[in-house]
Amino acid sequence: MIANRSAPGATVIPVLGYADVAHASDWLCEAFGFTERLRIADHRAQLVFGDGAVIVTELGEHSGPSTVQVRVESADAHHERAAAAGARILNPPTDYPYGERQYSAEDLGGHRWTFSESIADVDPESWGAVMGERLTS
After folding, report:
1. pLDDT digit string (tens) for 4-17?
2. Are strands 52-58 and 44-49 parallel, antiparallel or unpaired?
3. Alpha-carbon separation of residue 9 from 70, 78, 85, 89, 118 (angstroms)
4. How far apart are CA 87 and CA 82, in angstroms?
5. Rounded CA gap, 115 and 100, in Å?
6. How confident is the model at residue 106 (pLDDT cuts 50, 70, 90)?
7. pTM of the model
8. Domain extents in the chain
9. d(Cα 109, Cα 132) in Å, to the nearest integer?
10. Between the CA of residue 56 and those of 84, 87, 90, 119, 130, what are the distances in Å?
11. Secondary structure of 51-117 in HEC code, one letter for each residue
12. Residue 130: which residues within 8 A CB-CB, separation 6 or more?
């Protein structure tokens, strides 16, 4: 798996929805000791804790309050496996400008999953994110 500055290094990344991303990010950092890695406008933030990560996003970005994001070696191969096993594919594998190839699926319980393959090392500031160390300066 290649490293991508636009994606957290963790393998499994919960995606949690909140009404106010900035407030939630600040609170999670203060209350639980996370560090904000980067913020994407006012709708998304990546927080890290040790070698783990969580993505904070607006509630409206998906139908439920949370999803799970998993980093994989090959989004295409993983997609084929999931589809063959009967997963409901919500979005096919797609390349994104932040250096990830992702697809989304729903499991038999209705839980949503995004599987993400790093395909390039992209400077997060090139697509509009603000790096954590610059948030306080």
Report:
1. 998 888 888 988 88
2. antiparallel
3. 11, 19, 28, 25, 10
4. 5
5. 10
6. confident
7. 0.69
8. 12-135
9. 35
10. 31, 25, 21, 23, 15
11. CEEEEEEEHHHCCCCEEEEEECCCHHHHHHHHHHCCCEEEEEEEECCCCEEEEEEECCCCCEEEEEE
12. 38, 39
| Choices 3.30.530.20, 2.30.30.240, 3.10.180.10, 1.20.970.10: CATH for 12-135 | 3.10.180.10
State the sign of the Cα–Cα–Cα–Cα dihedral 60, 65, 71, 75: negative
Read off the amino acid at residue 135: L
pLDDT digits (tens, 9 = 90+) for 45-74: 999 988 889 898 888 755 565 778 888 899
CA-based radius of gyration for the chain: 15
Residues present in the chain in total: 137
